[in-house]
Amino acid sequence: MTAKTGKRRLDSRLVVGLIMFGIMVAVAILAPWIARNDPLAIDFGTQFLAPSADHWFGTGRLGFDIFARVVYAARYDLVIAMSAVAFSIVIGHPIGLFVGYMGGRIDSLTMRGLDVIQSFPAFVLAVGVLAALGEGVLNLILVVGFVGIPTFVRLVRAEVRSLREHSYVEAGRAVGNSKWQILLRYIAPGTVGTVVTQAAISCGWAILLTAALGFIGLGVPLPEPEWGAMIADGVDEMVVGGRWWISVFPGMAIAFTIFSLSLIGESIADLVEPTRRKSR
Amino acid sequence: MTPLLKVHGLEVEIEGLPILRGVDMEVRQGEILGVVGETGAGKSMTARSILDLLPSAATVSFRVCTFGGRDFIPAKERQQARGHRIGFVPQRPRGSLNPVFRVGTQLSDTLRRLRGMGRREAKGEALDLLRSVRITDPKRVYRSYPHELSGGMCQRVCIAIALAGEPELIIADEPTTGLDVTIQAEMLKLLGDVIIEHNAAGMLITHDLGVVADVCDRVAVMYAGRVVNLGSTDEIYRAALHPYANQLVSIATSLDSGGTPREIPGRVPNPGDELAACAFAPRCFRAETDCFEQEPPLVDINGQQAFCHHAITTEALPL
Amino acid sequence: MLTYIARRVIALIPILIGVTMVAFLVSRGLPGDPARLYAGMQASELEVQAIRASLGLDKPLYYQYWVYMQGLVQGDLGFSPRTGFPVAEDIRNRLPATVEMVIFALIFALSVALPLGVWAAVRRGKLIDRFSRFISTLGVAVPDFWAALILVMIFFVFLDIAPPPVGRLDLGAVSPDGPTGFYIFDSLVRGQWATFRNALAHIILPMVALGFPAIAPITRLTRNATLSVLQSDYIAFGRASGLRGAPLYLKYVLRNSLPGAITMTGLISGYMIGGAVLIERVFSWPGVGLYAYNSLERTDHAGIQGVVLLSAITYLLVFLVVDLVQSIVDPRVRLK
Q: N or C: which terminus of chain C carries fewer CB neighbours within 10 A?
């Protein structure tokens, strides 16, 4: 075992995941150069065209070029998901550090609070809150980020509680660091690894949740492109008219992105915690 | 008299790494053999080979393996002996009992499986077995779950399970690991007693030579996948031929008398390490160049056997 | 055992209260004027005022919560202006459709994932293990509502072997008037074979679509649970005591993996309550999910909040049941 982990080979899953995710990020950034057509151009002359050389992914009911919309939607979905995860971390990480380190009543109170939030299925809670808040990109980010907070609080809290007992933390205490210095210098850095791992996984969830909300009409307001809403556009066309391409391609974009993120998440998890390898 | 269990030239490899490199030992009828050595010497592997309980990555070969006069080389023979002809007492008794079944259920299930008993008959026999391992309130223990019992109590139950198939041999693998120090001696005494009461032979695996002295008739000392010294407990304690065994004995006796033992320098080789012709040579205070170059010969004095170029015999001592 | 149940139920009460408070705040306390939403954008300020008073929205928040709780205890979830019925009644009528679908999806997911997980654990590191891990990663990546559409595309649009996604039965088919509202069960009990076949044909695709995303996590957890059981001391000791073959796997390994599987089933069914909203939309399945979707489309807040609250309560109840079953299956649980 020691011989094998001693020389740490670069995980092929990490490489593949990073390349795939990099492609998606590049697509989002370079959207105007990649898509030749305007994603918002309504043209009834090009309604419901099947995929062709002119329109790689075909066109929709309003003559939108699906390829252009899939490409531009990457901007919305990635930005929303990543901002939401950032929001979850910014709120969840400090709370987890604090209650994990303090323990006692504030800790158990916070935990009960999380129990309450997590009693709601995440998607249903997001629907409820978003329906009350109203649509809009900012609200979407806040809601998707909000339902992700408990995961980070629990994760960081558990990590802090185990780090608290470590001997190097004891040593830090012995040389006269204050309570807060201990938390910031000795404990907080130890929680970064798990947070990064979870961030990759959560980013996948966030994309899924964003798309699911978009699918039921609670997302980015039309006519801006968003993958989930685009899939919803094609439901009736598929069932009634057999026009499969409207929904298929945005879904593939979602699957591609989340697949890359879970590859990254899994391989980082193994890297951060090499002992996990044994159990897999 | 033919020995009950005879193992000769037992070799085990796991993923190309040699774990056992030709183990020779025998257990005679009615005796208890102690198998002693440091962690990694191959004691448990030897026991597991006899029961065909090695991990699937392992390859096993015997030159000779007989049990009660039967050829024991075919894996099927060894598998069928589990429970029936050979009982097994595990280490970490609390974890070795299934947490979701009552103790009594586990014992009666074993009886029904090994002896083909009916439900009621098995229960009666199970209570008898619990009594025979000195459990004073067998009915309560029978109804308990493992987590409701102490470690010592769990080990008694494990011994009862090992006895359930009326085996001819009981193999105990570090049976005191995970038990309180205070009850370790009691447990070994119990194990020795029940082996005799049930007319079985025993094989007691331990890293503690001190444990052996009280219970075992003979001792096999293992080092790096081989038995290097084999003899009666008295002989080994009085004058072990092999320098390794000799040092283990002096460590055990100085511990008993409250002194600080001298450590054996160096460390146990890992599987796959390059070994000298005598694996112990790099750590041995009597080693000379022949120890590194030639296979050590078999020395046989007063019924005690050792593989050593420079065995500690009275004749060999410098004048 | 009884004290254990009592403890669990009592522990649930503060969480239930918390859940109602969150649901209440989501419906009343957030920015935005519910009265305005109820009245519609075209309503005059006077009409909005009247609605505000009639809904009690001019009262302080804690008083509103008190009124809300009084209603809740009597099973009053408000009134839906869209359907013209009390929300509780609307949901009650649609619940069997959703529950039937979730049960089928659960059975589907478990019957694929449990054997796959055990198999992957037994043949650890081999081809099947790698394959199941690949499927797991892929399964997490595919949105379930999209998978549902792809199923419709393949089996209805292209192959035309599945019925159209128009609900629980063909259009115009008469629903069985059985005792439970579960069409498959009711039609079976009444011996209405045509309806039975029809209902079965209609549930297959939603079942697969809703169950599919659950396969990945169940497989993974089953695999890990089985692995830790297989590597446990008690299985090693059982083997050494002569336990082999089918009895070993069926009685011991399965029995010891059960607690994990049960917890998972609880988690998954909670997830499915959420997923049902999306799947029901694709298949026009007339359940609670579609009700939530339609309420959403018409900004019918009472309907949405009713579903949100009920799904949380259902989730909690599922977990209570899981805990109780757990304590029967694993005697150690009761100690904690």
A: C
